[in-house]
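Regression test case RT-17, inverse folding.

Input:
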């Protein structure tokens, strides 16, 4: 059974930082492209950042809105992908979802990030 379990969300003040983690099980993690998406209330789910598998050179991509503030990374030995979020803004408030994509796509249950003073 495939599971993606996110953690690390919470309430943070503007300008603060959070680190999200997504632990995978039930998949051969190394071959999967991994990504973080987010969905704010009333908005469509959007791609935040992605890191491709080692077969694809671990290529990294960021949404323009988070470039320079967020950093995605993966640890294939731990089957975990991370999202370091710095200089958070109220507009970053959303549910953040982990995604694994290879021959099939899998999603985590999401973790809430709220940026508010």
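Golden output:
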């Amino acid at each position: 059974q495939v599971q993606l379990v996110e953690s690390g969300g919470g309430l943070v003040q503007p300008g603060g930082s959070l680190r999200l983690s997504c632990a995978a099980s039930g998949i051969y993690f190394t071959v999967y492209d991994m990504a973080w998406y987010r969905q704010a209330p009333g908005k469509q789910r959007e791609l935040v950042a992605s890191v491709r598998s080692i077969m694809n050179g671990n290529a990294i991509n960021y949404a323009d809105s988070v470039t320079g503030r967020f950093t995605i990374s993966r640890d294939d030995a731990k089957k975990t992908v991370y999202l370091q979020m710095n200089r958070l803004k109220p507009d970053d408030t959303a549910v953040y979802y982990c995604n694994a994509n290879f021959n099939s796509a899998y999603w985590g249950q999401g973790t809430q990030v709220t940026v508010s003073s």
